[in-house]
Amino acid sequence: MKTYRVNDIFYSLQGEGHNTGRAAVFVRFSGCNLKCAFCDTDFASFEPLTGHDIVERIRHHEARLVVLTGGEPTLQVDEQLIDALHEAGFEVAMESNGTLPPPSNLDWLTVSPKTKPRVQRCNELKVLFDEAETPNDYGIQADYYYLQPCDVGDANRNASITRRCVEYIQRHPQWRLSLQTHKLIGFK
């Protein structure tokens, strides 16, 4: 039976993008094919879990949205795991860097590219807005386009980045602002 390297499972609110504010169960997978300096995931620790184990750990939560995240979940997640989550009554969303093709049976795909992605279509494109003047949309077609100010760990620089991000969105209204509201309200 296949096992997945799971870094963490937790219940919270979706803090970013289109589903902001929705209660969700997060399954964070260990491992990534990129090494982003700002990443907040511990890749060294994980627990090997089967799809059945994952479903049993999340089944008791009231929310029926599960968010598969990482690391990079496309390194591990397959259609069998998503089928098991669907059978348990969950809507399945994934947050990916877009470098690998996702399983075809997802309900929602958020791509947050850090390099040239292979994925060319998603529900939601979420681009980190840093100190560059023009964000790259990477040629991805999406239902929704979000810019998220990058948290660089410095309050003054963060304020400047956020202000420039808002100004950019005002000039380019196809983009929407995504804030990390879970951090703003002190949740995981």
Describe what this molecule looks like in 3D:
With 188 residues, the chain is α/β, with parallel strands linked by helices. The protein has a single domain (4-184), classed as Aldolase class I (TIM Barrel, Alpha-Beta Barrel). Helix content is 20%, strand content 30%. It has four helices and nine strands. It has a nine-stranded mixed β-sheet with strand order 3-1-2-4-5-6-7-8-9. Strand 8, helix 3 (155-171) and strand 9 form a beta-alpha-beta unit. It is globular, with a radius of gyration of 16 Å. The two termini are 31 Å apart. The relative contact order is 0.16.
Q: If you average the pLDDT, what whole number results?
A: 91
Domains (count): 1
* Number of beta-strand segments: 9
CATH fold-level label: TIM Barrel
Run of helices and strands = EEEHEHEEEEHEH
Radius of gyration: 16 Å
Overall body shape: globular
SSE topology sketch:
Elements: E1 4-13, E2 23-29, E3 47-49, H1 51-58, E4 65-69, H2 79-87, E5 91-96, E6 108-111, E7 121-129, E8 141-149, H3 155-171, E9 175-177, H4 181-184
Parallel strand pairs: 2-4, 4-5, 5-6, 6-7, 7-8, 8-9
Antiparallel strand pairs: 1-2, 1-3
Task: Give a summary of the structure in a few sentences.
Its EC number is 4.3.99.3. This protein is α/β, with parallel strands linked by helices and 188 residues long. It contains four helices and nine strands; from the N terminus they run E-E-E-H-E-H-E-E-E-E-H-E-H.
